[in-house]
């Protein structure tokens, strides 16, 4: 997304949700949304096929300690 698209989306969404975006928070919200859009683009670049199934549940695992 371009910076203009991000600003337009953030403004429209905050208005639609009835959330007043304070001027001193605006730059941070726009930076965060741009970062989230970059993450989404990385995920979107992964090709998925119809046979790829979503996980039913996420089960985190604890990383093993390195043996010395």
Care to describe what's here?
The protein is an all-alpha fold. Helices cover 53% and strands 0% of the residues. The protein contains two helices and no strands. The longest helix is centred in the middle third of the chain and has 22 residues, at 23-44.
Topology overview:
Layout: H1 3-16, H2 23-44
Helix pairs in contact: 1-2
How confident overall, as mean pLDDT?
A: 90
Alpha-beta classification: mainly alpha
Percent range for helical residues? 40-55%
Number of beta strands: 0
Query: What is the helix/strand order?
Result: HH
Which shape, going by the Cα principal axes? extended
Q: Strand-residue fraction?
A: under 5%
What is the straight-line distance between the termini? Answer: 46 Å
Spans where pLDDT lies below 50 across 5 or more residues: none
Largest sheet: none
Overall radius of gyration:
18 Å
Tally of contiguous helical segments: 2
Short description:
This protein is mainly α. It has helices at residues 3-16, 23-44. Helix content is 53%, strand content 0%.
Task: Name its key features.
extended; 68 residues; single chain; 0% strand
